[in-house]
């Protein structure tokens, strides 16, 4: 009897772990994120439906290029639940990536989502690296031109590099309201507190002096994942909503 109870408990735990591996499912039409709630849940608590407005589902600015005047020559305009409250529980997000000539979206991964990239302008070299295999970590990479799309599987390290001498633009779509971002170099050499240098030196086969130098660098995050309350872009937008109502 005891063994049977243990088996049932283990199966329930396994089922629960799989259920929690995805964004929470909607049990109503929408669950607009309440940024001011003190309730801790997987995602955000719902705003009172009486307080929901059309602007909770609205984001503007994806038509405007972001500044690429940085060391990497790239910038990301992220539209996730942190910036668009209406995405809460819907399981989707997106971003615009701008690349200067020879700009780089550096190797990174999204722990909670796969990604599909669509090239809107320019030419990119993009790819991902597999998990460990008996043949090593395999690189799948391809030159992408305007109109092409490329998929990056969930959790795998991937990148995009503008191989053209003109600016490039791409749009990415994610299967999570909050896909997460782990930039490989930042995580290894810019963690707080830092990973002990003797561990990194052995892991990446570099001298401690080199590792110490790398840890002293300012590692750039081109995807500013911060909460930005949405505001109306201009009075014309306000007027268009009034007309629709």
UniProtKB/TrEMBL annotation:
Q: Name the PROSITE patterns for this protein.
A: GERMIN
> Which SUPFAM superfamilies would you find in this protein's record?
RmlC-like cupins
Main localization is: secreted
Spell out the Gene3D superfamilies in the cross-references.
Jelly Rolls
What family does the Swiss-Prot or TrEMBL record give for this protein? Answer: Belongs to the germin family.
Entry's Gene Ontology molecular function annotations: manganese ion binding
Classification via InterPro entries: Cupin_1, Germin, Germin_Mn-BS, RmlC-like_jellyroll, RmlC_Cupin_sf
Q: Where is the signal peptide?
A: 1-21
Give the UniProt keywords, A-Z.
Answer: Apoplast, Disulfide bond, Manganese, Metal-binding, Secreted, Signal
Statement: the UniProt record of this protein carries the keyword Lipid biosynthesis: no
Q: List the disulfide bonds.
A: 31-46
The UniProt entry's GO CC annotations, sorted and at most eight, read: apoplast
List residues of the Cupin type-1 domain.
Answer: 60-212
Query: Could you identify this protein by its name?
Result: Germin-like protein
Residue numbers binding oxalate: 105, 110, 115
Q: Where is it located?
A: Secreted, Extracellular space, Apoplast
Q: Where Mn(2+) is bound, by residue? A: 108, 110, 115, 158
